[in-house]
Amino acid sequence: MDCVGSQLFPKEPNVTAISLVLLPGLDGTGLLFNPLVAALPATITPTIVRYPGEPHLNYQQLLPLALEALSQSDPFILLGESFSGPLAAMIAAQRPKNLIGLILCASFVTKPWRFVGPAIPVLARGPIFNLYMPYKRIRARLGGYSTPERRALIEQMHKLVPPHVFASRVRMVFRVDAREALRSCDVPILYLKAARDMVVPAKNLRVIQQIKPSVQIVTIGSSHMILQRHPVEAAEAISSYASLLGLGTQEI
């Protein structure tokens, strides 16, 4: 795991108790957070926000649902994984009480593929995803990167989320623009970067850096699904970040 920039984390952080609100990826179930939750230290209390499978809500409709899940009494860090990065920025822009930090994990604030034309939004429909889901499961088995436990989570997730909801969320990704929301964020930001991310290209981090030059970056040697493939390394980065925030550090 590499830390890009100045010395972000102390070698032996003094972590104080803190809450971590987790906004899920494209599936919205929160099931795929299980490996990370198991790796988190006892000093971090996770709260998983789960999006309804039906109806398929857009970012603006998900915003009040997510806001309701935020702690009203304790300091918390907000983590937006992949699909949920724009939503996390929108929440941070509201400056909710007790928010002390924002983590964007392998994510973006505007459409992740700049030069993609109208084809993807047009093709992102339920029938296409009916074909794609079996292919993804086969690839996971043959690709050598899926454990039995991870495959079981993916199978359970696919049972909960209809293909047309996945398709709707893909279309949302190519229409979102949360750059102004990120600009309004006034808490320290950490970006967890996947070194081999083929889903969210590196230019997305550069966009975030242009808006927030102070963003701190931890690079983990992983493909897109950092929290599922490398939960221990991710938990260590989150814990160190929480340590600094819990100690009252305002700028990192």
Query: Looking across the biggest beta sheet, what order are the strands in?
Result: 1-7-6-5-4-2-3
Provide the gyration radius in Å. Answer: 17 Å
Q: Class in CATH?
A: Alpha Beta
Q: What is the first-to-last residue Cα distance?
A: 18 Å
Within CATH, the superfamily carries the name: Alpha/Beta hydrolase fold, catalytic domain
CATH level 3 topology: Rossmann fold
Strand fraction: 15-25%
Q: Please tally the helical runs, counting DSSP H or I stretches of 4 or more residues.
A: 11
Order of helices and strands: EEHEHEHEHHHHHEHEHH
Tell me what the CATH architecture is.
3-Layer(aba) Sandwich
Instruction: Enumerate the spans where pLDDT stays under 50 for 5 or more consecutive residues.
Output: 1-7, 9-15, 122-129, 137-145, 248-252
Helix content: 40-55%
Could you say how many structural domains there are in total? 1
Number of strands: 7
Mean pLDDT: 82
What does the largest sheet look like?
7 strands, mixed
